[in-house]
Amino acid sequence: MGGEASLARQFGALELGTWVSYTRGENTDNDDNLYRIAPLRGGASADYRMQAWQVGGEWIVSARKEDVAAYNGEFETPGYGVLNLHVGYAPLKNLNLTAGVDNVFDKLYYDPLAG
Description:
Layout: E1 2-11, E2 14-23, E3 26-27, E4 32-33, E5 41-50, E6 53-62, E7 80-92, E8 95-101
Antiparallel strand pairs: 1-2, 2-5, 3-4, 5-6, 6-7, 7-8
């Protein structure tokens, strides 16, 4: 079973977005979970554009991964939330300069799909 949904809305120069994703997989041959299946995850984003400038960020959250594949030695991972920020400048039509900081609060987290 799987699914994904997203929502984006623009307010002039401000764009807000959200997304959520859930997938469930089971190996029916050995009654185990499938390997590297992401737990419930979601996020929210905001971007503001003004002339050639853009600033924004996103908050990404993930639930604890408990449904692991024992046959492959997969580990459980705790849930997490991280904040990413970015700024961009487009001085020319085909030139876009972007800088950002991922994991702004330098939080230790384990990506459930990293193996």
